[in-house]
Amino acid sequence: MDHEQLQQETQIHNEQIKLLASCLNIMAAGFAVTGIIGPFTTVGMRIVPGATIDGQALALTFVWIASGIILHLIGSLMLRNLR
Fold first, then answer.
1. What residue ranges of the chain have pLDDT lower than 70?
2. Helix, strand, or coil here: 2?
3. Distance in angstroms (rounded) separating the CA atoms of residues 17 and 14
4. Which site from 2, 7, 15, 54 is most exposed, i.e. has the minimal number of CB atoms within 10 Å?
5. Residue 64: which of 42, 40, 33 has the closest Cα?
6. Contact call for residues 61 and 39 (beta carbons, < 8 A)
7. CB atoms < 10 A from the CB of 76, how many?
C-alpha cells in the first residue's frame, strides 16, 4: 500500500467518523428539544385539556434531555477516533 492510498483511506475514515458524530449530535439536539418543548407546548397550547406539568411529565422531560446529552457525549467520544 503506497503513501497516497493510505492517506486517502485515512481521509475517508475521518470523514465517516465526522459524519456519524454529526448525525448523533443532530439526534441529541432533537431529543433535547423534544424533551423541553413537548411538555410545555402541550400545557401552554392546551393540546390536551386539563394537562399539567406533573412529576411524570418532568421525569419524561429529564429522560429526553438525558438521552440527548448521552448521544452528544457519544458523538464527542467518536471524534477521538480521528486519525
1. 1
2. coil
3. 5
4. 2
5. 33
6. yes
7. 13
